[in-house]
Amino acid sequence: MSFSAIRLEEKQQAFAELREIKTLLASRGWFPGTSGNLSIRTGEFSPEQFAFAITASGKDKSVHTPSDYLLVDQSGQPIETTGLKPSAETLIHCEIYRLTGCGAIFHVHTVFNNLVSELYAERGSVPVDGVELIKAFNIWEEEAHIDIPILPNYAEIPRIAELVEGAIVPRIPGILLRKHGIYAWGANAFEAKRHLEAFEFLFEYAYRWALLKK
């Protein structure tokens, strides 16, 4: 695939979808202190070569500017001339795209995803049993049980990226970083949003349920 083959309208569509989801999630307070990042894959895909639009580093996601997004390649490097820097965690997006072929990845920091990641850190996953929102992941068995993977939050992003392959569970479209936040993905922006919202509901449920059981 040649990156020059990415059509202008594909790029504009990805940027427009990112703006829409950024507006919605910012209104919920899910991007405190310029945290979080969003990306949408564009153009053709192979595990060895692909491109995606991602939020630029250090931007206030509650406002809109002409320099909020950029295109990067499968190594997280900009594919157009730009002074913008991709999110510091772009390498994690690269690994998730490479391994899953998904179409969008959304990463947010919330109080409940941080609390539950610490609560179950030693276990290495957040257990959830029989909650209706599990169906958002297309898991339909009655009283389904899932375990949402937790990875350590190293300061060096490449160390985290190296662990992504071993953490991905095929039917669970997300990975939680300890005391950091959730990466949720889907075939497109709509599905990734649905998965993200389901994860956040389940994290709050799991944390409150654990407190009630004490």
From TrEMBL:
Cofactor: Zn(2+)
Enzyme Commission number(s) of this protein: 4.2.1.109
Keyword Lyase tagged: yes
Functional pathway: Amino-acid biosynthesis; L-methionine biosynthesis via salvage pathway; L-methionine from S-methyl-5-thio-alpha-D-ribose 1-phosphate: step 2/6
Assigned keywords, A-Z: Amino-acid biosynthesis, Lyase, Metal-binding, Methionine biosynthesis, Zinc
Function description: Catalyzes the dehydration of methylthioribulose-1-phosphate (MTRu-1-P) into 2,3-diketo-5-methylthiopentyl-1-phosphate (DK-MTP-1-P).
Name this protein carries in UniProt: Methylthioribulose-1-phosphate dehydratase
Species per Swiss-Prot/TrEMBL record: Paenibacillus ehimensis
